[in-house]
Design goal:
This protein has 443 residues and is α/β, with parallel strands linked by helices. It has 2 domains: 11-154 and 309-371, Periplasmic binding protein-like II (D-Maltodextrin-Binding Protein, domain 2, 3-Layer(aba) Sandwich), CATH 3.40.190.10; 155-307 and 394-439, 3-Layer(aba) Sandwich (D-Maltodextrin-Binding Protein, domain 2), CATH 3.40.190.10. 47% of the residues lie in helices and 12% in strands. It is built from 19 helices and 12 strands. It has helices at 11-22, 24-31, 54-67, 83-92, 104-112, 133-138, 162-167, 180-191, 207-214, 231-245, 258-266, 280-286, 288-292, 323-333, 336-345, 353-365, 370-387, 400-415, 421-439, and strands at 42-47, 73-78, 99-102, 140-141, 145-146, 149-155, 157-161, 272-275, 294-297, 307-315, 349-350, 390-391. The strands form 3 sheets. Strands 1, 2, 3, 6, 10, 11 and 12 form a 7-stranded mixed sheet that branches. Strands 8-7-9 form a 3-stranded antiparallel sheet.
């Protein structure tokens, strides 16, 4: 399974389907529930779990059916790149599933069109108390209500090549973004290598967008208009532009994605790699010498120490004829025992507080065999500690991927010397507001 990475969509088809969904007849298709049929199973769509997790999912579905014989489930697993296209097509055709696995941005996008059920009146008492509060809030839309239930999570750590730090005479990597320029300069001048790689390829990682929030930048206001053309926004844009122009970032950050960061780190050319703890396995396999020099450190943050968490959720489309049963299925999949079992097999963290406590207890009691297992255990414990100060940093607003594309494109132009960093801020705000005014016109 690939872990919560950015999905690459067929934009032309997506916009065609969205346009159709916005037509009058399609709005009725989104909002109207068909009459339930007792002989039809609940339809569950997930993202790229098959075939690796077939045994787990089959066991969970068997347990569900044993407790709910009148609500059998038909499980469909979809590739990462097809879920948005298929779901929009299903909504248009009034064949949407009962429960679907979504990331927050697409959930917010669908909710903005009336496509998801507000679960608030259907939730059992105390349901919210079962989950990590920050991710429960991230599954709530200010206008559409509680649009999803949190499922699994990932956090990035800093995997650091301690050998390069020693060559540079450094004891620790930076913990705050403000300390990165001095760190990057020390690494570059003493080792000839680079400190970090953060891409500005528009459809790749959101790490840079998240860093803007950590630097105190508000991306959007309550009207969905640009809120980043501020002193904080200009400082944050200048931060990245200056790093690039001073030669402290690899040239490829403007043209290649995070996969290039992995290549550079595994070749020993990068001091710091922002990845989840399970990625240590790949480094141990592909670059054992680099792995031996690697230690997990907390992720970079802003002044308040808030880290980012990436989230997957389960939502109930408005078209589900059995929303109460669909919600019960979502709560069953995300309960403590089921999440605790899932994270034993998948390189993720649970959103359930019960499962988090169980995973932490197991790790603390574990006696790893060998240095590689000890390295993994240390990193996993650090990821659990990081969750305590993590939240979803980038707002789950409809069009957030468009905003990322606009900001990254203008940053690219500034990095390459075509415009100044201040001009990049103003141009990005202007371009976003044109889009926002067309999508959310003032009344």
């Amino acid at each position: 399974m690939q872990t919560l990475r950015t999905m690459h969509w067929d934009r032309r088809l997506r916009m065609t389907l969205i346009a159709a969904a916005l037509a009058g007849s399609s709005l009725m298709a989104i909002g109207c529930r068909p009459q339930p049929r007792a002989d039809q199973p609940l339809q569950l769509w997930t993202l790229q779990l098959a075939p690796k997790f077939n045994t787990y999912m089959d066991a969970v579905m068997t347990a569900w059916t044993s407790d709910h014989p009148d609500a059998p489930v038909r499980w469909t697993d979809l590739p990462w790149g097809s879920v948005e296209r298929k779901l929009l097509a299903a909504v248009f055709a009034r064949t949407a599933p009962d429960v679907v696995n979504l990331n927050p941005p697409f959930a917010a996008n669908l909710a903005s069109k009336g496509g998801l059920t507000d679960l608030t009146p259907l939730l059992p008492e105390g349901a919210a108390d079962r989950y990590l509060p920050s991710v429960w809030r991230a599954a709530r839309d200010p206008h559409a209500g509680q649009i999803a239930v949190p499922w699994y999570l990932t956090v990035r750590l800093n995997l650091v090549n301690q050998g390069l730090l020693q060559q540079a005479g450094l004891k620790q990597p930076p913990q705050r973004w403000k300390d990165v320029p001095a760190f990057a300069r020390a690494i570059r001048e003493t080792t000839g290598r680079y400190a970090l790689f953060v891409t500005v390829v528009p459809d790749d990682s959101a790490e840079l967008l998240e860093s803007l929030v950590q630097m105190g930048v508000t991306l959007l206001d309550g009207r969905q208009r640009a809120a980043f053309a501020t002193p904080e926004g200009r400082r944050a844009f200048a931060f990245w532009v200056d790093l690039y122009r001073q030669g402290l970032l690899p040239r490829e950050v403007v043209s290649q994605g995070q996969s290039r960061a992995v290549e550079l780190y595994q070749s020993g050319a990068l001091a710091l790699l922002a990845k989840g703890p399970e990625f240590l396995r790949s480094i141990q396999t592909n670059a054992p010498q680099v792995a031996a020099a690697t230690r997990a450190h907390p992720p970079l943050t802003g002044a308040d120490g808030t880290a980012n968490v990436a989230l997957m959720t389960l939502a109930v489309p408005r078209q589900s004829a059995r929303p109460r049963e669909a919600l019960a299925l979502a709560l069953f999949l995300t309960n403590g025992p089921n999440q605790a079992r899932f994270v034993q097999e998948a390189p993720v963290l649970p959103s359930s507080l019960e499962a988090l406590a169980e995973v932490r207890a197991q790790l603390e009691a574990a006696s790893p065999e060998g240095s590689q297992q000890a390295q993994l255990r240390e990193a996993r414990l650090l990821s659990l500690a990081t969750l305590e100060r993590a939240r979803v940093l980038v707002p789950s607003s409809p069009g957030i991927k468009r905003l990322q594309s606009i900001i990254y494109t203008q940053l690219q132009r500034a990095m390459l010397g075509q415009i100044s960093s201040d001009q990049a801020v103003e141009q990005a705000a202007l371009e976003w507001n044109r889009y926002a005014e067309a999508r959310w016109p003032e009344h």
